Amino acid sequence: MNETVLVTGGNGGLGTVICSSLLDKGYKVISIGQTGTKLKPNDNFIHLDINLTNFENSLSEISKLSFDHLVLAHAMLDSKDFLNLTLEDFIVPIKTNFLSNFVITQYAVKKWLSESKDKVKSNHTITYISTVATKGGTQTEVPYHTTKRAFEGVMLTCAREYSDDGIRSNVITPGIMDVGLGKNILKQRPDILDRLPISSPSDPKEVADLILYLINAKHVTGQNLHVNSGRYFSI
Ligand SMILES: NC(=O)c1ccc[n+]([C@@H]2O[C@H](COP(=O)([O-])OP(=O)(O)OC[C@H]3O[C@@H](n4cnc5c(N)ncnc54)[C@H](OP(=O)(O)O)[C@@H]3O)[C@@H](O)[C@H]2O)c1
Hints:
- By secondary structure, the chain is α/β, with parallel strands linked by helices.
- It has a single domain (about 5-235), classed as 3-Layer(aba) Sandwich (Rossmann fold).
- The protein contains 8 helices and 7 strands; from the N terminus they run E-H-E-E-H-E-H-E-H-H-E-H-H-E-H.
- Strand 1 (about 5-10), helix 1 and strand 2 (about 30-35) form a beta-alpha-beta unit.
- Helix 2 packs parallel to helix 3 (about 90-115) and helix 3 (about 90-115) packs parallel to helix 5.
- The longest helix is centred in the middle third of the chain and has 25 residues, at about 90-115.
- About 40% of the residues are buried.
- The mean pLDDT is about 95.
- The structure holds NADP nicotinamide-adenine-dinucleotide phosphate.
- NADP nicotinamide-adenine-dinucleotide phosphate binds next to helix 1, strand 2 and helix 6.
């Protein structure tokens, strides 16, 4: 397997599981975060610390890399009651959860289009990790889920415009997981699981398995795949 996957948020709770699963299946992985990784670098794995909201610098770093697939799994979440939100509270989430994804995605699409010699053989994927909070809203995480939902629109455009060039774009929508951003929420409010059709947290390994599936599913594009214990349809 010679294909390389660039995973943003590759050192996060979910990202670490994604990187490990890709490595187990023989992919080369480049992980991006800001604070190092627990995984050991080797011939198939490197991790880079890059603040992706510094767009100019991040593009300059990413343009030094060669990769076939992109997994957009970085995000930030701050909690604040809706009635107390200010305009400033949206700035970092917009930069982190929307604009940085746009900048990387546009770069990757341009690069793959310019490299493509045979669009039938070309196989590139962009997989964006959204959240089920985009489907039902929340009282305290509005900048988080609105900026994440906004990026789903970019993914639809990419799927519509570039799938025929061998660049497929899909979204995976996890529910609460017992890793990363979800860990504390589950500790504080374990009862949120009781309202789910499947009353257990979403499994990060199932998200990773879907990414692997999407990389190889040549006729799947523009989809939003739900791994959220049924919360999507039961909201
Ligand atoms: N955990 C859940 O319950 C859950 C549920 C639904 C969806 N999700 C989604 O799953 C994805 C992964 O979340 P997680 O739960 O694994 O959270 P996490 O452990 O906090 O991971 C977030 C990742 O984003 C990176 N990141 C944040 N801001 C960045 C920036 N400016 N530049 C570069 N990297 C940045 C972090 O790197 P550093 O830590 O090094 O800053 C970290 O790797 C997110 O897209 C999240 O929305 C999570």
